Amino acid sequence: MSGFNQRIQHLSDWFFPSFCVQCQSVILTKHCLCEHCLADLALLDITAYPNLLYRPDIVELFPDCQFDRLFACSWYRAPFDHWLTQLKFSNQIHYKKALSLVIKQQLEIYKLNSESWPDIFIILPLHPQRFLQRGFNQVAQCWLPCLINENVDFQSLQRTKKTQAQSSLSKAKRIKNLNNAFVCNTDMTGKTVAIIDDVMTTGATLNAATMVLKHAGAKQVWTFVTCLTPLEH
């Protein structure tokens, strides 16, 4: 950055400061989370378990996963539950910036500790009618800034069935609700495909998408989620 641009940035920070979404202190960053609050977040240790499906408590919580690998940043607890809810239902954009910062940090660590990497990344699509009602895909808002150098596919996986909101359903009803919900219109033979969602509660949505992708020939399906719902939630 040139000296002139730096001065402009400093003036902008002075007149239009950002505030940390946790401690409300003034920060000279557009990420909306100060370095101290970022360091204090309870994040999952992805170096000890590069594949969270091998972590005993997570295996017990999600015993029927059809996908091959699982990545998550944190449990769906404070402050993540508040951030995600406010983003999803109130479009509070400052929470998106904080979530993207956490996701980017964890993804960089994960990639350094992975011997292989997905060929394609797919953000789970909303049904077109739901997308029009909401006006945005909250998963895409958080994750796309972190996938700039990745092969992101927006076309191959489509949601053709407008399902009932999963949050109101039991595990059995979630599975039934997702029957024939997705279609894949691309040959995925031999590909390692990553699918991305915000919260994994039972795994039903991710399993439904996984089976469609494997039917299309995917060699492996990895799942990347922002949060996992704990058993007591």
Secondary structure layout:
Layout: H1 3-15, E1 18-19, E2 26-27, H2 35-40, H3 56-61, E3 69-75, H4 80-90, H5 93-112, E4 120-123, H6 128-134, H7 138-143, E5 157-159, H8 171-177, E6 182-184, E7 192-200, H9 204-215, E8 220-228
Parallel strand pairs: 3-8, 4-7, 7-8
Antiparallel strand pairs: 1-2, 5-6
Helix pairs in contact: 4-5
| Computed Rg | 19 Å
In DSSP terms (H or I, runs of 4 or more residues), the helix count works out at: 9
Order of helices and strands: HEEHHEHHEHHEHEEHE
Largest sheet: 4 strands, parallel
Give me the oligomer status. Answer: single chain
Give the averaged pLDDT, no decimals: 86
What's the total count of β strands? 8
Task: Calculate the terminal CA-CA distance, rounded to whole Å.
Answer: 46 Å
Shape: globular
Strand content of the residues, in percent?
A: 15-25%
Helicity range of the residues? 25-40%
What structural class do helix, strand and pairing data support? alpha/beta
**Numbering strands along the chain, what is their spatial order in the largest sheet?**
3-8-7-4
Low-confidence stretches: 4-15
Descriptive labels:
globular, 233 residues, single chain, four-stranded parallel β-sheet, 8 strands, alpha/beta, two-stranded antiparallel ribbon, 9 helices
